[in-house]
Amino acid sequence: MSGVKDRVALVTGAGSPEGIGFATARLLYSAGAKIAITSTTDRINERRDEIERTALNIFSRAADLTDSTAVNTLIEQIENDLGPIEIVINNAGMVQIGRDEPSTLFHEVSDEQWHYGIDINLTSAFMVTRAVLPGMMKRNYGRIINISSVTGPSVGIAGSSVYSAAKAGMLGMTRSLAIESGPNNVTVNCIGPGWIETASSGDSEITAGNFTPIGRSGTPEEVGHVAVFLASEEASYVTGQLLIVDGGNTIQEYKVAF
Question: What's the domain range around 79?
Answer without folding.
Answer: 8-249
